[in-house]
């Protein structure tokens, strides 16, 4: 398997082959690695590298992929160099309208703007309460509020569009 | 005349409900859980001997419905109610309703709670007993105008605090008069929402104090003891983050003076059962009474570890009218304990709450580790309540050893699926100032303002990259089909093929 793994903004070519013995042959950045990889369960690896032992846990949250190693969570992206799909995705979404979405489930406490209002970047737009905490969502860019999709008191799910700025 | 309790209803949820259920089981007492619709799958329901539904998810329609809870107690024959912390635990009307219904409330009498549970009344009680307290008002403020007048008299900076408050809710620091009106309104509305009582009062803000509290225990026979102190200076937005016992700055003499002050306050109010007297301690180690929490505290485990006592067992014994089984002279502190409050919140994203499903839970164990936990793998953290997941506690002979033991345990611990604050504890416990006990209530905000620690080592990124590839490989069909390798130009086709292989 050949993949590009992106970690901390660096894209690194990775080649992996599962040997008949169950071990893996690893090549990272074109260099062979003497990594002894043992899969403890579908979400846990023990990796021995130069005699050092690492416990690595798969730590993804939905589409947000990550591993945890040495108690640090390291997000990664992985793409198939043969696939165009990931590149196409990255090119989309360049239009002027920007939705403001709920980052978690909650309740709308206050609307600070109305449809048609001109807003500055980082201006407060809407106050959402979750778990007894009130959080103010701010404008991702300067523009005009073209749509307000919720009312005060409404309960929203994570990812729900609250309003749109153009 | 002492009378054995045979069945206790626990009017709470999460880790504290489970903590009390465990004590009941150890004492051979039947336990009754109550739950909201959001908590049918919660651990406390599964662990209790009996469980009854209260109502919909919002606390106001379930865990704050004292009438429903008393109905359940009557119907199932529970002779006592343990309120835990939060919810109805400091509600004097509920305690009085229990008394009237002939159900023992495991906590102080309603009258003592009224004298101490309201922060303004507690300040009046402290004045009556001649104890040192933080300057400010001893009455709720009727209006912004009154707030302005009191603030001017006290001198800025001041704190606005909810009379019925706790856990930092309904609390605002005000540094100048211009900020007062808005802070007054938000503090009132937050207090109203959190406690059903919008009363706020003013306290002088003491700069860089330590928050140190004394655990007291009083029986129905006039005995009252103090069980040493807990230092809770590591706070964020007035919410305790790490607690420890004993405090590094309290020596035997200060411990005795603070302890005796706490006992005097409790006895002045006719207080019984477990309670906590909170003090602010300034840089000269003067201490000022802050408030009394008339319930079991979240952080009670650190006191249990250094005293060797079980506070919930003792609470139940006191409620049975038994005398305290030891005297003040028999209370000894041994070793050091530290507690980390694990919350479903993201320190890398402004501490936003992160409700959701816990897809993975790897817990710490080994010597000197205790965990009071209310979660399990596969459970969904509801968004209706405080996002506390678990309390991890380390105990060792010295403070330094306890810190290192906690770091070791945090390295083992893992919560998957949602963000939580484990990384924050690692950062604090490795910080030079924390390790030398150079802390105060503003310590954590200052630490968080500094840039985070050094980036990952290169080798860790390599390990992560290899692991990412292996996990990816694991999600593919076992014998990777070379179909796409043969120059198939259509993504649609290869996607369809992969789909087929997955079936």
Main sheet overview of chain B: 8 strands, antiparallel
Give the number of helices of chain B: 17
The protein's oligomeric status is: heterodimer
Approximately how much beta-strand content do the residues of chain A carry? over 45%
What does this structure look like?
The complex is a heterodimer of chains A (166) and B (503). By secondary structure, chain A is mainly beta. Chain A is built from 1 helix and 17 strands. In chain A, the strands form 3 sheets. In chain A, strands 4-3-2-1-9-8-7-6-5 form a 9-stranded antiparallel β-sheet, with no helix packed on it. In chain A, strand 6 (44-49) and strand 7 form a beta hairpin. Chain B has 503 residues and is an alpha+beta fold. Chain B has 4 domains: 7-106, Rossmann fold (3-Layer(aba) Sandwich), CATH 3.40.50.20; 135-204, ATP-grasp fold, A domain (Dna Ligase, domain 1, 2-Layer Sandwich); 210-449, ATP-grasp fold, B domain (D-amino Acid Aminotransferase, Chain A, domain 1), CATH 3.30.470; 458-502, no CATH class. In chain B, the strands form 6 sheets. Chain B has an 8-stranded antiparallel β-sheet, sandwiched between helices. In chain B, helix 5 (110-117) packs across helix 6 (119-128) and helix 12 (399-412) packs antiparallel against helix 13 (422-430). The longest helix of chain B is centred in the middle third of the chain and has 17 residues, at 252-268. The radius of gyration of chain B is 25 Å and the shape is globular. Residues 478-490 of chain B have low confidence and may be disordered.
Summarize this, please?
The complex is a heterodimer of chains A (166) and B (503). Chain A is mainly beta and 166 residues long. Chain A contains one helix and 17 strands.
